[in-house]
Amino acid sequence: MKLNNPMITAKKIFRETLKARIYDVVERTPLEKAQKLSKRYHNHIYMKREDLQSVFSFKIRGAYNLIKQLSQEEKDRGVICVSAGNHGQGVAFSAARFGIEATVVMPVTTPPIKVQAVKRLGAKAVLFGDSYAEAAEHCAELAQQFGQTFIHPFDHPLVIAGQGTIGKELLEDATELHKVFVPIGGGGLISGIACYLKEMQPNITIVGVEPEESDGMIRPIKADERILLPKTGTFADGVAVKQVGSLTFELTRHFVDKFITVSNDEICSAIENIYDETRAILEPAGALGMAGLKKYLEQNPDTKDEHLVAVSSGANMSFQRLQFVAERAQIGEKRETLLAIKLPERPGALFELCEKVVSNRPITEFNYRFRSHKEAYIFVGIENLKLSDKQQFCKTLSEHSYEYIDLTDNELAKDHIRHMVGGPRLDSIEHELLYRVRFPDRPKALLEFLIMLGSQWNISLFHHRSHGTDFNRVLIGLQVPPEDREKLEEVLANMTFSYTDETDNSAYQIFL
Q1: What is the homologous superfamily of the domain 432-511 according to CATH?
Q2: Which CATH number fits domain 59-150: 1.25.10.10, 3.40.50.1100, 3.40.50.300, 3.40.50.720?
Q3: Does the annotation mark 59 as catalytic?
Q4: Which has more confidence, 91 or 429?
Q5: Phi, psi (degrees; rounded to nearest 5) at 185
Q6: Where are the beta strands (DSSP E) in 199-330?
Q7: Can 313 be counted among the known catalytic residues?
Q8: From the candidates 48, 57, 59, 460, which is the catalytic residue?
Q9: What is the mean pLDDT of residues 285-305?
Q10: pLDDT digits over 356-387, tens only?
């Protein structure tokens, strides 16, 4: 919807924020200084610790504020919501407080930690679909069928006002405040904070942060319309929203000053930074604010001695995801460089490389691949103790006439190649095509993919890694004659699974 006057709507939400009576269940979370990051970046960096809520997320604020103000008739009908997990916990907790029956609809791929938490709080958990969008459609059908009261996760004035109490607390606790970095999913959190802060102190800069692969607010604002994303990323599942709210879209584009996107590696780095400061482990969506804050300071190195806040929005982290986070944090912090280094295939070549170039540098990966009787490649990971280490290492390689390819930002190399290098190169495999495919983390997903693919092409390679996320990564090689290439593309285009053609990826050409 178009707001005839966003200022009037924002003032109404501001007044609702002032009236919100939520502290009988909501924690007034601390504003905690990140001492190490503050020293590193020469600014005063703070974390708004919403991960310390009873449901480990800010979502309790908006859900409770709305449910508390429902009419008795609306409460008697029971409540229902769709959620990637955190909103569902807020609704379940709030409903239990008032003795209301609650149903939470979540995608089948929702991390078990969030599903179990909803059930433990007394709500009925309904798992449906592989995505939030599919779960939302099913939720709407159930609400209509059973007459339950729908509790929107972000696009309702009372939900937005509930999240706005964070802004109120920020002004009460901060002696000075220049910029606030806020994660964006559906837009409820940043809308609430913006409505309050811009009314009280309009000079404060509000920065919205989204994952690069789930920029559901930034893209519509650039297009000047509330578009539906064809797909979203899966790592930061808490903000993987294909279409932001109509109300939150209008409020955000009028009252948020800047936007920034961050990579998964940068999110992992922020998770590690926050753990180093607090010993708390945030979920990917929960660390978005800090990832954006760090990236902003790296892009604006002249920013000094300012008071900056990152909203740490949630900590419902699946334990199985930590391995992936640890791997990627090294790269996100620019502490690891991945290289493919070409060697002559002769006795002593590997020793010469280690003696001349590697020397005493810390090694994180060192994998050898025989390529032919003339040359070989090694997959090397080097730990960067400081930012200049990578430049120096690459300079030393060039000085000794070694050819190399930088794979640090190559997704294929990071997800698969580093775990697969070894054995002779099979140049005899004809017409091989390589694809990275994302499978929902649920039973029979692989079988469904193979049924859709059919048995007309030989599978020449298969590598699967679970990252504890709602989707797993699979690398598959297929032998497809040139005359069948168009037919394969038609089959892939009709699939519900997302995929990336990696046939021309340099890492594949070298190591597989």
Answers
A1: Biosynthetic Threonine Deaminase; Domain 3 (3.40.1020.10)
A2: 3.40.50.1100
A3: yes
A4: 91
A5: -115, -90
A6: 205-211, 258-262, 307-312
A7: yes
A8: 59
A9: 97
A10: 887 777 777 777 756 666 777 888 888 886 77
